[in-house]
Design goal:
The chain folds into 2 domains: 112 residues, no CATH class; 191 residues, 3-Layer(aba) Sandwich (Rossmann fold), CATH 3.40.50.150. It contains 13 helices and 8 strands. Strands 1-7-8-6-5-2-3-4 form an 8-stranded mixed β-sheet, sandwiched between helices. Strand 5, helix 11 and strand 6 form a beta-alpha-beta unit. Helix 3 packs across helix 4. It binds S-adenosylmethionine.
Amino acid sequence: MKLSNGVNLTVINAEEIQGEYDTRSFFYVLTLWLVSCWSMFTNSVQLLYLKLFRYRKKYFQKIMWEMGRDSSHVSSFFFDRFSHINHRAKYGAADWRSLDLFYNYHTKVKPSVRKNLEGFLTHYWMEKMENRQAVTNRFKIVVNLLSDAFCRFEQESEIRVLSIASGSAQAVIAAIKKNPDLNIKAVLIDNDKTAIDISRQNVKEAGLEDHFEFVLGTTRKIEEVCEQFHPHIIEMVGLMDYLTDTKAIRTVSRIRNCLPENGVFLTGNIRHNREMLFLFWVLLWPMIYRTEEQLSKVMTEAGFSSEQVSLYYEPFMIHGVAMATRGVL
Ligand SMILES: C[S@@+](CC[C@H](N)C(=O)[O-])C[C@H]1O[C@@H](n2cnc3c(N)ncnc32)[C@H](O)[C@@H]1O
């Protein structure tokens, strides 16, 4: 399918990626909205109290963010009061900890869930929510697209990939493992030391130490790293959801300038969906949601032509991945 600006959009079937597509009933969504509304009330009262009596100079959004990331804050009786896994997903939101729970829910989390209240709540929210399933689908799409991108450079003696905001680097590791015959080198940039530490550990467990280098730093390091590393592929999935349009366009444009002819850029963005209220008020996880038109506009305003950009959405149409190729077409 083509968007109005000419960018190609593909919705990927769950079977194609061995993904998840268990859509929720109206009753489930209604429950989710009711729990969200109750949390909107209780968390607003707490927010107002903190703003008026503790942090007068801080913006509401900052207070809300810190409240959500505070491991002693409980958002909802129905979500994280009795499930430590749901609670971890809430205070670890936006970093590798939550994603680790989401990506590996079926292999790491579910087997340890017992048949009690905690187990019920974990199963009800963590397993069933469409957003959890969707982000896992995104992960699988990114692995496949990275792997396809590696194959485009199979003639090179060394294929170089840069991952920005790399988190625990699970997608890059999985894509490299899928292509054992290719000589792939990766540099990971993340501004969180714990993310660098866990990715180092994951790389070691995968036996890929010779393939990786780690940079603790922010997106400001992009040009410095690229000048030395000359990546063929740059991946930045999971960061656009927090960047305003101006920042997103500037960052993508800087990345584009670092790519060689035929170089590939991969990124992604969450799309508006019916569980947004829950993410905002229960998980206290504010994100910048973009439609497919808005995501493609960021890419084209950053300098890619519409023919150079393709969008891939997972079956729920909650997460989109954009793949752009510099210079050709
Ligand atoms: C949602 S995670 C995404 C991780 C990984 N790319 C994935 O998709 O699984 C976002 C990561 O971005 C990192 N991060 C946030 N702001 C950053 C910045 N300005 N520069 C570099 N990393 C950043 C966080 O530490 C976190 O590990």
